[in-house]
Amino acid sequence: MKNSGLRPGKSPRNVKQVHNIQYQLNQQNAHDDVFETFLFGTTHDGVILQQELIPNLITIQSHPEVICHIKSLQETFKHLVFHYDTTFDVGDFFVSILSMRHPLFKNEPMIPVAAMFHDSTKQRCHSHFFKVISEYFVMNSTKVIIVTDREKGILNAIKEQLPNAQNLFCWNHIRRVSNF
To answer: N or C terminus: which one in the chain shows less Cβ crowding within 10 Å?
Structure first.
């Protein structure tokens, strides 16, 4: 066994030693999350739209077919309603998800459009997300409605990157803060 700590021809003496050897072998093959994301991007064309390491860790993902679909919807419908929110308590990073109310289906269900994995909730990260997404389909338009909570970093990012989009506040967040 390569680097197992055993001399050639010797077998493990007990179960603990077997576990130690397995652990050592797994450590040799382990990659960190950033590298795993890089590998994912190299094997799934077009899914990773951008990955940045410095000054913030940011990975922006979407699927090429979803992007094409959004473009076609924007040509057909007067307005599209997007929702953007950041999740918390997911470990050492945050996940912000851009979803859309799909106008072709009954009750306009929400579909995920893009996601950003990031290490900070500052305006810079959200601004970067909207800038990158705008390279793939129209976001800075009066035909775009973005529903958000009242998180300062997100609001400032929308003002900076998408000044023509309409920004509305999520009723659930307003109700929760106002105790309705």
So the answer is: C
Cut 0.85: pTM above it:
no
Q: Are residues 63 and 44 in the same domain?
A: yes
| Same domain (yes/no): 62, 15 | no
Residues in the chain: 180
Domain that holds residue 89: 33-178
- Continuous H helices in the chain: 15-29, 33-43, 64-76, 123-134, 152-161, 171-178
9, 91: one domain: no
